[in-house]
# Entry
Amino acid sequence: MAEPKETRNDLLGAYVTEKLAARHFDAYYCPTAQQAVQKAMELIPEGSSVSWGGSMSIRDMGLTKALHAGNYNVLDRDFAPTPEEAAQIQRQALLTDYFLTSTNALSKDGILVNIDGTGNRVAAMCFGPKHVIVICGINKITPDLDSAVARARNTAAPINSIRLSKNTPCAKTGTCHNCNAPDCICAQFLISRICKPAKRIHVIIVGEELGY
Ligand code: SF4
# Structure
């Protein structure tokens, strides 16, 4: 018999998947990260060009490693020898067949919320790559849009500031102070309330905690 927490995650995952589908996203629920990697690999035909944004979730779950090992044209800025070449890969990533990213938050009625510094990740979510695959750990689902924005600002962004060793107020206090610091990573805010064209964005909700 499943544990109550697993059952709750399965129920919530199925509920939010339906809400995403009603907003024209191509949505799936996978109970485990391993199953989510399999689902993402099923969605990407061999030979496709693939890139991704600065997501810890897709790295931690082994998805980027699986793509490097497969028959794909992978554009990975982490292997660029210079910052200029990394920036060039970020631009080329906007014309790939598949762009992978996590999300900072997902409201239970199916709205994605993301904050970006450079803007390459949210740009790709809006327009450019033929397909976008969004991986969302169950920990990122929030009761509504306001709490999704609050999560992105007060949880995801401060942790990312600390991870990236930024000189920002949130990196010193653990919460957002709505700063304008030169190191601020919150330049662009994206609210994706429907998917257009329909099913361009594939969202895989994972019944495990992933990323932050
Ligand atoms: S303090 Fe600045 S960098 Fe930190 S979360 Fe707020 S706006 Fe973003």
The mean pLDDT is 96. The pocket of iron/sulfur cluster is lined by residues 153, 157-158, 161, 168-170, 176-179, 181, 184-186 (CB under 6 Å). The chain has one domain: 4-206. Residues 4-22 form the longest helix (19 residues).
